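Researcher: Checking consistency across runs. Here is MAM domain-containing protein again:
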Amino acid sequence: NIYVYLVKPTDSGEACKLPYRVGSFSWDMYFCNRGYCPTENNSNSTCKPGKFSSLSLNNNIKNSFQLKTESGGIDSVDQQCLIYYYYMSSMAGTKIITVTKEETSGTKTTIDSVTSSPFNGWIQRKILFKAETRGYKV
């Protein structure tokens, strides 16, 4: 299966009606299914591609990714807002997403932590935090 995070509407310009059911399955679908989804006027509209990253982790496996920024880090200070989306399958195992801010002084602070998903779909997280100096990294 290919899952697409729907940042953009369908090719017809309509938004997908989410969630929906696929065939006889009893669970809700929050993604395009094989490149299609239902809209208000069409039960099988073509989805525009969105952007997402996929990472498969098993228990006790850890990976780190730094946000791509200018070479000097993020050029902002004081109150900041990070908005990100995640999909964490409820299938098997313990999973944790930890978002860390690193100041230019080397001080690292956890600004968010996620351990579960309230439903089978993309979840938006909006995190407010303070940057002490310019050039911090997330």
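Researcher: Does this match what you'd expect to see?
Model: One thing to look at in this run: The chain has one domain: 30-130.
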